[in-house]
Amino acid sequence: MKKGYWMVRIDVTDPEHFPEYMAASTAAVAAFGGRFLVRGGQAQVAEGASRRRHVIIEFDSYAQAQACYTSAEYQQAAALRQRYAGTDFVIVEGN
After folding, report:
1. Rounded to two decimals, what is the model's pTM?
2. What is d(CA 16, CA 26) in angstroms, rounded to the nearest whole number?
3. pLDDT (tens digit, 9 = 90+) per residue, 49-82?
């Protein structure tokens, strides 16, 4: 079975409150077996535009990645993210 990934690029607009999102999203991701592979850190834009923060989360399957995103737990966290940051969010199937 192929894995599923969240690829998220983030520009935090409210650093004081953004930790609320981080706590809520971490709990939701853990509930669906997600593992953070990249969470911030140094990055170099080789081509195109970028955002300041990058996150990659691995799930056991594409279906699990989708289920986590659409779950009530994550949607509550997503509302916080949308309030405190600008994002590009992709769910992708991979190896």
Report:
1. 0.93
2. 17
3. 889 999 999 999 999 999 999 999 999 999 999 9
CA–CA distance, 71 with 16 (Å, rounded to integer): 26
Closest to 30 (Cα-Cα) out of 22, 40, 18, 20: 22
| The two three-digit tokens of residue 89, written as one number | 């969010």
Structural domains of the chain sorted by starting position, each given as residue range(s) with its CATH number in brackets: 7-94 (3.30.70.100)
- Read off the tokens for 88: 């590009």
CA distance linking residue 78 with residue 27, whole number of Å? 12
Angstrom distances, CA of residue 44 to CA of 41, 50, 55, 56: 10, 9, 14, 15
Length of the chain: 95
